[in-house]
Design goal:
By secondary structure, this protein is of the alpha+beta class. The chain has 3 domains: 97 residues, no CATH class; 152 residues, no CATH class; 155 residues, Trefoil (Acidic Fibroblast Growth Factor, subunit A). It has 14 helices and 15 strands. A hairpin with a 2-residue loop joins strand 12 and strand 13. Keywords: Signal.
């Protein structure tokens, strides 16, 4: 009898003043009631989210599928107040009783189509429960070599949307950094998840913490971790969102070129200018532009060895070459607009310099790639060009570049 009363009360609380419910008959059957049993008490004062949460707890008994049925009942109500109270009650119940964050995540994924239901509260339950588990894993794991707590969460963090994953980790850091060093926390998260991606994310987010910004050794250690990751072949399997954030930290570093397929080349001293393809007459060449786009950007094309690359286009066969011919006995000109598209692969030697990279032709090493000299511009075309290698120091601002990951996905 008591259980029937609770069921009827739950259904009655979804109504105001004896309204007629539009509960689906299938929902009521799954919950174990008949539609003709529904009684609608009026003027009830029990319809607060906290009271509803207790009733919902009695009904669902940890069956996540039943939460969805109750949500469907809420969606069918004519007043938004009651619907919102039921949503609030379910989220409260999640927070208290559903201990498996993967079940919460599955539930969140299952209700994504419910545009009329605020899902933020359910995701907040996911954040809170996940953070508690990760805190326990870190604080209980002195050696940081294995997970001392039986949980599927560490192996499934990659399934959580980025927005909420960041919130989870920030909540973890708020607690554990009061007793553990940032480097130890990063190592623990990497070890208990056994994932390059989670290790990358932890190190990246920790870099922005106040505890790290005021500690030069911890900051340097986190950067060293990230540099180690990006030099590993498996780093290319890290989600592109996180890879790009790492690449931006090391734009003058060249080892990571082997872990990405497309690299845009931009000026180190004028960060708005990128190398793009353009035409001089009928000749395809290179210009600098503030407005790169997928079809115009110059891309890293072929990685020959550690410091030698070919420069090409994403959708066009061939690479950018330099016409190195000169009359016998003459000196190479100070500036040459001698760049063109070649069907053959032409390699450039990448050399780290102060605040960036220089690109020398790998055949002779007598020329360096430059851009930004107004004397080489024609109307709105800002042509790139080469200068003599020995003149690099005098024109460092024109001839220093950065590489940026630019996979347009």
């Amino acid at each position: 009898m008591a259980s029937n009363v609770v069921v009827l009360l739950l259904l009655g609380l979804t109504l105001k003043g004896g309204e007629t419910s539009s509960i689906d008959s299938n929902d009521s059957e799954v919950l174990g009631i008949r539609k003709d049993q529904i009684v609608c008490p009026s003027n009830t004062t029990a319809g607060s989210p906290r009271n509803l949460a207790g009733i919902i707890r009695f009904i669902v008994k940890d069956d996540v599928e039943r939460y969805k049925l109750v949500l469907n009942m809420a969606r069918n109500q004519r007043t938004s107040t009651i619907k919102n109270e039921i949503v609030e009650a379910i989220s409260m119940d999640f927070e208290t009783y559903v201990t498996d964050p993967i079940k919460i995540l599955d539930f969140c994924n299952a209700i994504t189509y419910m545009d009329d239901i605020s899902q933020e509260k359910f995701y907040q339950a996911l954040v809170n429960r996940s953070a508690r588990i990760l805190v326990d894993l870190i604080l209980a794991n002195n050696s940081c070599t294995e997970s001392p707590i039986d949980s599927e969460l560490p192996n499934n963090l990659h399934l959580i949307p980025i927005k909420y994953l960041e919130k989870i980790l920030e909540a973890v850091f708020d607690i554990v950094l009061s007793s553990e060093s940032p480097l130890k926390v990063a190592d623990c998260l990497y070890n208990i998840t056994d994932s390059f991606e989670q290790g990358t994310i932890a190190n990246l987010l920790l870099l922005n913490r106040a505890e790290v910004k005021t500690n030069s050794s911890e900051h340097a250690g986190l950067l060293a971790n990230l540099q180690k990751f990006l030099n590993l072949k498996n780093f290319k399997y890290v989600d592109v969102y996180w890879r790009r954030r790492v690449y931006r930290l090391f734009p003058h570093h060249i080892d990571w070129l082997s872990t990405t397929s497309n690299v845009c080349i931009r000026h180190a001293n004028n960060k708005r200018d990128n190398l793009v393809h353009c035409y001089e007459g009928d000749t395809r060449t290179m210009c600098t532009s503030e407005y790169p786009c997928p079809n115009r950007s110059i891309y890293y094309h072929v990685f020959k060895k550690r410091s030698v690359i070919a420069i090409g286009y994403k959708h066009i066969h061939g690479s950018i070459a330099m016409n190195a011919t000169k009359e016998k006995g003459t000196r190479r000109p100070n500036v040459s607009k001698n760049l063109f598209r070649s069907k053959e692969i032409f390699f450039w030697h990448v050399v780290p310099v102060l605040n960036g990279l220089a690109l020398y032709d790998s055949e002779t090493s007598e020329s360096v790639l430059c851009g930004g000299d107004p004397a080489q511009w024609v109307d709105n075309k800002h042509f790139a060009y080469t200068r003599r290698a020995e003149d690099f120091d005098a024109h460092r601002e024109e001839c220093t570049w950065y590489f940026e990951d630019c996979n347009y996905e």
